[in-house]
Amino acid sequence: MDWEDLLAHVEKPSRYLGTEINALRPGREAELHFALAFPDTYEVGMSHLGIQILYELLNGIPGLAAERCFAPWPDMEKLLRQRQLPLTSLESHRPLHAFDILGFSLQYELSYTNVLNMLELGGIPLLRIERRNTDPLIIAGGPCTFNPAPMEDFIDVFVIGEGEAVIGEIAATALKMKRKGASRTDTLAALAEIAGLYVPAFYQAGTRIRKRLVSDLNQWPLPTRPVVPLMKTIHDRITLEIARGCTRGCRFCQAGMVWRPVRERHQEEIEVMAAGLLCATGYDEISLLSLSTGDYSRIEPLLATLMERYYEQRVALGLPSLRVETLTRGLIENIRRVRKTSFTLAPEAGTQRLRNLINKGNTAAELLSTTEQVFAAGWKAVKLYFMLGLPGEEKEDMEGIAELAYQVLRTGKQQGQVTVSLSTFVPKPHTPFQWERQLSQEETKEKQLFIKNSIRHRNIKIKWHDSRMSLLEGIFARGDAHTGRLLAAAFRLGCRFDGWTDLLRFNLWEQAMDEVGFTVAPYLAARDPEGELPWDRIDCGVERSFLLAEARAALAGEATPDCRTGLCQNCGVCDHETIRIITAAEAVAPVTERVASPAPAAVPPTDGESAPNLLRLKFRKHEKARFLSHAELVEALIRAVKRSGLNFLYSQGYHPHPKISFAFATSTGMESREEYADLQVTADGRDHLQLQRDINALLPQGLEIMEINAMTYPAASLASQVTGFSYAIALPPAESGDLVGLSSKIAAFLQSDSVIITRETKEKRVVKDIRPFVSGLALNEEKCTLLLQVRMSSAGTVRPQEILRSVLGLSHDAAQQARIVKTATLWATGKSILLNMNGFETTRPAKQSRHDLFR
Questions:
Q1: Strand (E) or helix (H) holding 472
Q2: How many structural domains is the chain composed of?
Q3: 768 shares a domain with 706
Q4: I need a labelling partner for 470 at 20 to 30 A (CA). Which of 414, 417, 521, 696 fits?
Q5: What mean pLDDT comes out for the span 165-175?
């Protein structure tokens, strides 16, 4: 399969390259092949910490190779189906059906149709009962498996709980059974014996599958070398997990119930991990991850230490999950030292009565005090999260949302921006509210409109979750096995990416409901506390009696204190020996070799200081790297430079950037033998050849530095010195039949004084004469290759694709198939100018064969 041909026809080819730093390289010998499948786009999946942990863990097991696969975007799916090609892994392009195990991460109910799509595209039967002995085992983990019922028809094995705790046993058992030549059925039976695995085919009625968990995070300092995406992802930064679990006891929160108890990392271990991850990735932001980051018992000294250590490198710290009452002035001041990352706070409810009912545990006064400090520290915007449809919600609670938004705005002295984000309450399994009803779609819209009409201020924006998505989420969150029929019907009708507003096709879901006779109301209705629930066979550790007691406390408006600071609430999770709350003070840091931090970057020079070092890099991009966009190439280069120990100088302001400039932005899909970048850096003791080797070792496959030269500071910008480019363009095979016609078109173009084209952009329509920008154009008929040389000036230039379409008359698709190579960059001075065989200027070395331009 010609993957490069596919990549030329998709919107974001970097989603499918698989050549990232720290990724597994193809060709590794393995007995067991494991595909980690994430049923959403690459940029979403690569932002998920779990896939990074499991990827590193599995690839550390002898005899096993783990690769990755993500849901293909519709443009790629269309190509695969048109050409009858299977969905494959990123690393080796191995078809999914050729793996031994395919492991899905179920993070969100609206990704279920993507699971089915990936199975079908991978050549695997959707229904587990139809799979053959040669088909891979389909495993699923993640929070959605705490109610496996909707996916039981499609998944062979569900992992209940935390994957690290059980993945090694799964791998060992699968390897053992494969070596024995065991059947698929026997392998599933063996897996069913492992604690924490729910295997529907071997489930014994009346038993409960207890979740598996990591008792002490300090024994699992992973990942140490995460894969660094080549494209910008949802969370484009280091994700450093400082704690797991939460005992605040918010009664709507599934994560707070199923991931108990709280387990904090030792502060020293976090510091060691931060140093190692910065060295391994080249990122400039660390996100301290926890369900409630501000609750980490050593958060202020940790933040102070990390900021002091990495401030000069302009490494920002992010705290993505903060409770209002935990955000202190000290935290705010440390966060703002490098740059102001976003501030999101979650009051959840508009009145104190409703906050007490849901056991939120904070007050309006605390929220207002916090936002006042945030605005005073220089932030211009705050986002507030609220839920609609919480149990016991009344009109005054919705009015309270509007009033609270205005009060927060006033703490910003009317100069701030407040975003009110509204989600719809979904009664999730294993929570005290699992028996409550969910709003209908019509009720949700009515409440959203009420809030919209209650807030009318230009500095308060309102956003809400799509009511159709909330409806589907509610159906599958508390669904039974019958919802699997609805899922399969919707998939067959074409539903994909149902969590993406622009791709949700709700009319097809309605059609699927009609086809299978599905009635929505029972799935949104309140449940009988004495009745059986579809997820009763799953034991998350929290006892049913505790959940019922919390439901009664909610009706009475009674708060339940956090067991970290008070008495044990007897939820049932802890055995107080192996499974217990572990705070940072109690944690024992493992003996870990400390990774040296990258040297701090110097502060940009001011008057009176020595001039910075200016280095000019000549590099090339080829192979799969040619499918990187210019922005992706820039990030890859910056990260490699940082990891090499070379220190950038930075711009000033709240969002400092490394001082790096480029000659020209080369198009995605174009190969280039000569690209240039100027770096402003601090002094470095290495010679340029050693520095070149060090940086090249850290660049993704296909990017390579050819030369590093010192320049005199200040130097003229690269853009002002470049006068043009030379290209060799291999035409697609379909064009080889009419070389005479192509030659005549070229001759006509060269004889013309003016050739007008229209360039369409998102912003405007540009009419342009491209003839003055072409200094040479010829056709090598033997190799069906076009040789093009263009001028560049303040008026712009002409793009090779425009020559292919407007001069040669190629269709858009044919032009996309052409292989374009930038062979040389032409300079105003400092380069000898030679004439090639077609009589126009080029900068190739004198000894270069005239045919090399076409290679």
A1: helix 467-477
A2: 4
A3: no
A4: 417
A5: 97
- 173 and 247 co-located in one domain: no
Handedness of CA 456, 462, 468, 473 (dihedral sign): negative
pLDDT tens digits along 344-377: 889 999 999 999 999 998 899 999 999 998 898 8
Contact in structure between 82 and 19 (CB atoms under 8 Å): no
Cβ atoms of 91 and 26 within 8 Å: the answer is yes
Query: Torsion angle, CA of 104/31/178/112, rounded to 10 degrees?
Result: 10
Residues with Cβ within 8 Å of residue 632, at least 6 apart in sequence? 14, 230, 231, 232
| Contact indicator for 197, 160 with CB cutoff of 8 Å | yes
* One domain for residues 400 and 444: yes
CA distances, 135 to each of 63, 86, 97, 131 (Å): 20, 14, 6, 6
- Measured between alpha carbons, how far is residue 747 from residues 326, 743, 761, 782, 783 in Å? 73, 6, 29, 18, 18
Could you say which DSSP state residue 312 is in? G
Choose the final residue of a domain: 162, 195, 210: 210
Residue 497 domain flag: no
Instruction: Assess contact for 184 and 135: CB atoms under 8 A.
Output: yes
Torsion sign over Cα 704, 710, 713, 715: negative
Beginning with the edge strand found earlier in the chain, give each strand of the sheet holding 344-348 in spatial order.
344-348, 381-388, 417-424, 460-464
Tokens encoding 499: 């969590």
Owning domain of residue 748: 721-854
Sign of the four-CA dihedral 71, 73, 75, 78 = positive
Strand spans (E) along 274-343? 285-289, 316-318
655 and 762 fall within a common domain: no
Round to the nearest angstrom and report the end-to-end CA distance of the chain.
Answer: 22
The residues, ordered by sequence, that sit 6+ positions from 564 with a Cβ below 8 Å of its Cβ are 247, 262, 295, 581, 583
For residues 813-819, average pLDDT: 86
Distance, in Å, from the CA atom of 26 to the CA atom of 356, rounded to the nearest integer, reads: 55
- Cα separation, 390 vs 358, in Å, equals 8
What pLDDT does residue 599 have?
41
CA 727 to chain centre: 35
CA-to-CA distance for 19 and 621, rounded, in angstroms?
13
Q: Is residue 528 part of a domain?
A: no
| Beta strands 671-681 and 819-827, pairing class | parallel
For residues 709 and 688, give the distance between their C-alpha atoms in angstroms, rounded to a whole number.
7
- The DSSP call for residue 128 is G
Residue 574: C-alpha distances to residues 5, 198, 207, 247, 675 (Å):
55, 22, 20, 12, 59
Compare 479 and 792 and report the one with higher pLDDT. Answer: 479
CB 822 within 8 Å of CB 673? yes
The contacts of residue 762 (CB under 8 Å, 6+ apart) are none
Q: Are residues 321 and 181 in the same domain?
A: no
Q: How confident is the model over 492-551, as pLDDT tens digits? A: 999 999 999 999 999 999 999 999 999 999 999 999 999 999 999 999 999 999 999 999
Phi, psi angles (nearest 5°) of residue 835: -105, 130
CATH number at residue 637: 3.30.70.580
Alpha helices in 33-82 (DSSP H): 42-45, 49-59, 74-82
Length of the chain measured in residues = 855
Q: What pTM does this model have?
A: 0.92
Going edge to edge, which strands form the sheet with 285-289?
238-241, 285-289, 316-318
pLDDT, the chain, mean: 90
User: Do residues 173 and 109 both lie within one domain?
Assistant: yes
Of 717-726, 754-763, 766-775, which gets the smallest average pLDDT?
754-763
pLDDT in tens, 368-417: 999 998 898 888 899 999 999 999 999 999 999 999 999 999 999 877 89
In this predicted model, what pLDDT tens digit does every residue of 3-16 receive, in sequence order? 778 998 899 999 99
